[in-house]
Every structure is written in structure tokens, then in C-alpha cells.
Amino acid sequence: METEVRDDDAALLAALRAGDERAFERLVDRHHAALVRVARQYVPTQEIAEDVAQEAWLGLLRGLDSFEGRSSLRTYLFRIVMNLARTRGVREARSAPFSSLVRDDEDGPVVDPERFVQAPAAGAGHWLSPIRPWSLSAEQLALSAELAGQVQAAIAELPETQRRVVTLRDVEGFTADEVCDLLGLSEGNQRVLLHRARTKLRQALAEEYA
Q: Rounded to whole angstroms, how far apart are CA atoms 197 and 188?
């Protein structure tokens, strides 16, 4: 599968370097919305995220000749947008009120303790009302406009690093290794952040899955 992806990358890269506009249009159709979603994790408005995504496409075209294929073309593209979005986010934050920069404590409780059986009762530590297991995916988001809105709202409430990890892993479909590469995280840190994010999302949507 990885070989097939790399072969596809090689063909696409060759087409882009040859100035094939249709190849570029297909790439934009495939990834533009995701670029905006990822950029939005770093900047304060949707409009700025759109600007950053547009700048990322220009950055991709300018960098095609220097791209060495050490990562997938998709990872390279998302690294561009994230670098641009980080820079833009810092610039925008300089004029933001200090209070708007306060973040939630990522080490705080991820679920209200009252939702668990309390000691010394039997089963202490288990859910009072168990919920069915679920995992977030792009396909699931498409099933229900209402559910999609609830999920996106719940994601938006996560601490920023958790939000970025779960967005890349569960919404955009990047692998753990790719997320570690893009965000500069260790494998263990990535796993902990993803677990915390998913747990908080389960908590936020527990009533939907009771």
C-alpha cells in the first residue's frame, strides 16, 4: 500500500513539475478543505485560515523542485500549511487580549468523576452508564449534519495540542508517525494526547451514544 502511495506521489509530482494544471486542480480538490481545517487550529478566524491555505498552495508550487520525497507529498503539503499557520497565528496573537490566550490545563480531569461508580461500591471506577465504543472518522462525520456539528463543537473545546492531534489523526486520517512528524511529538506523547482528546469527545457526546 505504501509503495502504491509513493508511486502515485511520483506520478503526481512529475505532472505538477511539468505544469499539468489538471493535476494541480485534482490536488486542490482533494486537500484544500483539510488544509483550511488544519490551519484553523492555529489562527483566530476562518477567513485567515482560508488565506493561509491559499498561501500554502503557492508554497507547494514554489517548493516542487526542492521536494526530495523523504515524506509523502501530502505530508509535505500539510507541513507547509502548518508552518505558515503557526507564523500567522503568532502574528495575530500579538494584538489579542491576554485573557484570550489562556488555555485549559491539559492535565486536568478528562471526565467528570461523578460519571463513574464510586468506591467502596463494587465496580468502582467503571462508567455508571456505559457508552458504546466509537471512533471518530471522516466517514462518520458525513453521516449526520447534526452529529458533525456536535463533534466539531466538541473538538473546538479541546486544549489546542489535543485538538490538533485528534484533528490530524481522526478527521484528516494521518498515521501516528505522520502526526509525530508534523507536530514534533514523541510517539508516547502523541498517544497520550490522542487518548485524552478521544476521552473528552466521548464525554461530550456520551448522551448521543448512551
A: 14
